[in-house]
Amino acid sequence: MDILYSKNGTPLIISCSSAFMQTTGAPGILKEQKKKADQTVNTSPDQDFFSVSNIKMLMWGKNNDFPQWANDIITSTSVLNSGLKFIRNFTCGQGIYACKIEGYDADGNEMLAPYGDTELQHFLLSRKARRYLEKAARDYFKFGSSAIQFIPNETGDKIVGLNPVNAFFWRLSERDKMGKETCIVSGKFPESPAKGDYNAYPVLMEYDPELDYDIMKFEGKTKESFMMIVRDSWSNRDTYSEPVWLSAYLAGWIDIAKEVPSYLKKVYKNQATWKWHVQIPYSFWEKKFPEAEFENAKDRTAAIDLYMDEIESNLLGTENAEKPLFTHYSINDLNGKVEEEWKITPLDNKSKEGDKLVTSAAANSEILFALLVNPNVLGAGMPGGTYAGNQGGSNIREAFLVNIANAWIDRQNLLDPLEMMLRINGYTDVELRFRNTVLTTLDTGAGTKKTLS
Fold first, then answer.
1. For residue 84, with 0-12 CB atoms within 10 Å meaning exposed, 13-18 middle and 19 or more buried, which class applies?
2. Domain ranges in the chain?
3. Is it the case that residue 6 has pLDDT exceeding 60?
4. Phi and psi angles of residue 279, each rounded to the nearest 5 degrees, phi first
5. 80 with 257: CB under 8 angstroms?
6. Pairwise CA distance, residues 40 & 69, whole Å
């Protein structure tokens, strides 16, 4: 008997010689699993701390390795990995556009005009701006937080660049009485770095980062780099925010999505697929290979092996398709019954691997639901059941529009450091908008159109 278990010891799939079994329904969360997950992602004040020199730091996860732990899960779960990249891509749209708000129409819509500064437009179209946006969005969606390093010029009156720091390499200190944090950057994490193995940067207060910058400027502290943390606040974790996909992990759907392909791979590698059951009467061997004609049993078995190899090679394979099989049998003169007859019976494989694909599709859908992504946008419509029948073009277009509409708050969070940089550099009247490609119907004469949001 072969049993495939989940990480918490729940049997998922059971296969044996006479039966195939599986656990159905949505998996629950055991107390031990919830406790373990809480220890992994907990950022409450009573969590574990560690020290870097004399700085009291908060661990990011139980072993201070939440980004590494989460990244292993993401990279080993194809639908989660591609779903997060899809969110990153539609959130970033087709880039950023600088404009001015000249007023509002009767419906309250903004009346936008292009911003005339060509140097600014070139910057927003440059690799520096694109690099900032895609790397900041990467950590924001994968791990719940992104750390942005502001790089000032020599005089400290302008910002020359924004550098998103890889989440693997930064951690935050305990907040002081004023709510201020320090960000430690080191390639030694998750281990505690020694003196000389890290850089420490002040972090702008989340409540009003521009006011905090003005205070730093008044104190003459803007000649050195400082940090701004971009967080998704939905998890209520004030220091290290949790990513939205974590709910799918806690519910067990990510484990199922990973276990089904592992099971199928194991089945295809180890299964013995029998198509036919051939029954040969014992009396046949006595007449075909009489014991008296062989010196010993070894010679007789060798002859039988050779005979069966010839039978198999002459009947199996594509070149022998539809080939007839000729056999002989005798009839008992006393009772009239058939004797020495070969019986060939087709076998029905009771294990239907295709059924597991439905389970896998359900797990994939649940993971995408946790990301607020309609599975049909990615071509993941299910062939039947609860999630079937939503694969039409209109549903895909509407789902994509919903994604763009829901992206507003995430886009604003990601734009905050960039807009703050522009204001520090003197662009006080500029507004940033995202270019979007919107799907349309073919009767409009085009498959897509460009919009701003």
1. buried
2. 42-245+392-452, 276-314+324-346
3. no
4. -110, 120
5. yes
6. 9
